[in-house]
């Protein structure tokens, strides 16, 4: 049986490959050219995906381990919750309040405050981290990896970061908040990278066109 990481890697890589092919169709249509698959940019973008997906998978796991749980919205999952242990974040059925109290009895009010989950607070933190730290990381890695895979020098790549970071960041902020809202309210941690890739097929097309497929 494949591990969650391998499953995510395969699924997300296929979605990224699809976005590259669609971007090539759009780009060639714009220039009134008959469609002809360009293998080199496809390989470049798939290679980029293979590198970035494990990074994002680990990021989502670590963020969920640090800030577990779902917010208490009407559409939030009611049957499961995420908990952290030494082997990672897992989902298990929610226990009734009385059973939870029996399972973990705090010694004092400070320990009680630490043990009490705050799904809404953790959701807000994860949402903000996704729009800031994760966005900066992903955009920077995209510019660096795509340029290096094209054989562009490291110095020119650094210049590309200064030139292209802001436009890509603005474009990302137009769609990513909606994806994050869904991702941190209804999607389990092991499925978040795949979900993000599925929602991001259009984003992938934009990145491919931005990279001039």
Automatic annotation (TrEMBL):
InterPro entries: Mpv17_PMP22. Its main location: membrane. It is found in: Membrane. This is Mpv17/PMP22 family protein. GO terms for cellular component: peroxisomal membrane. Signal peptide: none annotated. Coiled coil: none annotated. It comes from the Eukaryota.
